[in-house]
Amino acid sequence: METSSLATWEQRWHPLREEWVVVAAHRQDRPWQGERAVVPATRVPEYVENCFFCPRNLRVSGARNPDYQSVFVFDNDHPCVGPDAPRQVEPPPGIYRNAPATGVARVVCYTPKHNTTLAELPVDQIAALLDAWRDQYLELGARPEIRHVLTFENKGEVVGVSNPHPHGQIYATNFVFKTIENEAAAGRRYYDEHRRVLFTDILRSELADGRRILFESASAVVFVPYFARYAYECYVAPKETHASLATMSASERRDLAVALKSLLVRYDNLWQMSFPYVLVLHQAPTDDGDYSGFHFHIECHPPLRKPHLLKYLAGPEIGGGNFLSDTRPEAKAAELLAVPDVHYRLRDVANLDETHA
Ligand SMILES: [Zn+2]
Ligand SMILES: [Zn+2]
Question: DSSP per residue over 45-82, as a string?
Answer without folding.
Answer: -S--TT-SSSTTPBPTTS-B----SS-EEEE-SS-SS-
